[in-house]
Amino acid sequence: PLPGQWEPLFPPQPPSLAPDEAELVASAPLCSGILQHVQDPQVRRSAYTAMHSVNAGNLPVLHAIARERHALATSLGHTSFADMTAHGSVAGDPEGVLRFLHELSAGLRPAAAADAARVLARKQTMERAFAGAQRNESDPTTLEAWDVEFYRKVLREGDGERAAEASRRARLQARRSAGADAAGQAAAVSADQDDPDDPDGVAGADAALAAIHWPDYLSLRNVIGGIQTILREGFGVDMAEVRVRDGEGWGLAPGEVRKFVLRHAEEGELGTVFLDLYSRQNKVGGAAQYVVRCGRRIHEFERAAQRSRAGRAAASGAGEQAAQGAEDGAGGPDGATQRSAAEAGIENAGLDAVRRGYQLPIVALVASFPRPEGARSALGLGSGMWDAGVSLSLSQAETLFHEFGHALHSLLSRTSYQHVSGTRTALDFVEVPSHLFETFATDPRVLPRFATHASTGEPVPADAVAAMLAQRRTLQALDLQGQVTHSVFDQAAFSAAPMSVACSFLHPTTGQIVLPTSHEELASAPAAALTGAAAAVPAGIDLSMTPETFNSSVVLRETMRRHCSFPHVPGTAWQGGFAHIVSYGSAYYSYLFARASAASLWEKLFEADPLSRQAGDRYRADVLARGGTEDPGDTLERVLGSRPSAASLLRRLGLHDAPDGERRR
Predict the structure, then answer these.
(1) Which of 278, 390, 452, 590 has the most CB atoms less than 10 A away?
(2) Cα-Cα-Cα-Cα dihedral sign, residues 317, 323, 324, 325
(3) Nearest 5°: CA angle at 186, between 182 and 191?
């Protein structure tokens, strides 16, 4: 049975249906629920097929987009839309993109094979109940697209329990080793051993894990406090709440929008961030960071004009405050001195920095987090306290950290010109600061610093953190294979030779990308270039396919054969609902590329000590402060000593150079 939250999605059933039949609308929420919770493989197959068939009508539109973008790119002198998009990126060109994706795909194969083996072992056991049923066509020895979500749910519970047990055992052993004498050791043991029938405390660990409720530990006050702690200890930056001036909250009720000012002890004010975090009617969902005003150098001629206008205003009786502004040279960057209260608050933000000739950045971090009825912070009234009754899920807390990573990129950037300030940089680099800052949110050394229980004040148990991290690793190699598949398909769709890109491979000796143009060349691909889902190469592959003859279903099928552990499902059209192909056309790889770059930076700067001031200062000076003023590839190479690679991401995820058993836990 499905959990209760899915029951409202069931429409009224026709009376003519048999007791074991149901007629459903193929909505994504309902089909997703079926894929996660229904054991019957035939029901899951029906849900998967229905969910990924409803968008087939979009395929002519997708093919038209590919043709028109190719025409646009070639008219501008590029070989393809993918070539045009890669211009100025860290990857450099489409070959650099494909090399990264192929290296990541190859690195994932051993771990993905281990994931697939785990699923099949459990599948063969669980589906015996359906063996012999006339309508059961499932092959328990084959991994299918509709298996992954269900068996992830089955397997992750055990992964979490084992991780919690291992964490508890390690803590117990550490206490035993630290015991100065027999009495101390006995005390350490008794602290973790209350049940003589459970000498290692495993049952207690499992019970604690089952009882963990993340929102109890993640009040909004705690999460904001965690960000403040990281900034203060790791970057030497104080993030203080200040009163929202009249008009600054874009017309919302007091308390809906919060205002924080970032300040450095030696440099003074750095910038301002407004937080608009709660959902409301007609507000766009999701979370994002918006730049209200970019940082930039204020030129002397602008400051002279400001002083002149302020002087004239003072002479005409505009008031003593305007005269003081003329003396200080602290008027707004555009020279106006008499404004509404809201404008005055914006323009006078960071008075000390303006005097030094720099326009301070202002950003807004917007989300749509639900808020309990009647819960409201008193921040807008100047108390400086967040309402502890507003709590976030762990995923929401990570989202806030992620978006704050973007905000820091904008706030700590120090560029002369605003068009290269902060996040105005290469598409495959812009997500690097956000992914890196998101990493702080679940680091076992950082998370307990701010995730404390609303009632007891106790930090989140180490066992629960270990379990959470282990559960996230369940079947993660299969997940990453999916992202690689989508990224290669995206590159193929906007290339000059879609099928050649889909069938591309790394040359075994030169390491160069090979785009096969003949079946003989295709047959020369090493066996390792195919995943476990691939069989013999079909003879009907049209390697001469062009944007004019682009067939997305065939290209997707061949892409999956090379990068995915389960085969394409005939008759489905997943790509018809791939919205990123419009908004991130030929740049979908940038998500994985940014994660790899962030993993490299974390490994280099923060792995040893996530709150290292030395690491934070270097990251700020060598990465964030530069905005988009230089090739971000050069930025990364200067900090890392080399360009980022797929290996960094694999190491970060525990999928590189690890025994199979360690990859899974």
Answers:
(1) 590
(2) positive
(3) 150
Reported pTM = 0.83
Amino acid identity of 350?
G
- The amino acid present at 207, given as its one-letter code, is A
The pair of structure tokens assigned to 215 is 């929102």
Question: Alpha helices, DSSP H only, in 536-631?
Answer: 552-563, 580-583, 589-601, 613-622
Helix or strand or coil: residue 84? Answer: helix
Helices (H), 263-340: 300-315, 320-328
SS3 category, 356: coil
Q: Which of 647, 648, 223, 651 is nearest to 460 (CA)?
A: 223
DSSP state of 138: -
The residues, any chain, with a CB within 8 Å of residue 159's CB and separated by 6 or more, are 470, 471, 473, 474, 664, 665
Per-residue pLDDT reduced to its tens digit, 469-509: 999 999 999 999 999 999 999 999 999 999 999 999 998 88
Taking only Cα atoms into account, the Rg of the chain, rounded to an integer number of angstroms, comes to: 28
Cα–Cα distance for residue pair 440/461, rounded to 1 Å: 17
Burial 256-274 (b: 16+ CB within 10 A, else e): bbbbbbbbeeeeebbbbbb
| Cα distance between residue 148 and residue 118, in whole Å | 11
Say which range, 108-112, 362-366, 387-391, has the weakest mean pLDDT: 387-391
Interatomic CA distance for residues 487 and 565, integer angstroms: 16
CA distance 47 to 2: 13
pLDDT digits (tens, 9 = 90+) for 522-536: 888 877 666 654 545
pLDDT tens by residue, 265-310: 999 999 999 999 988 888 988 899 999 999 999 888 877 777 777 7
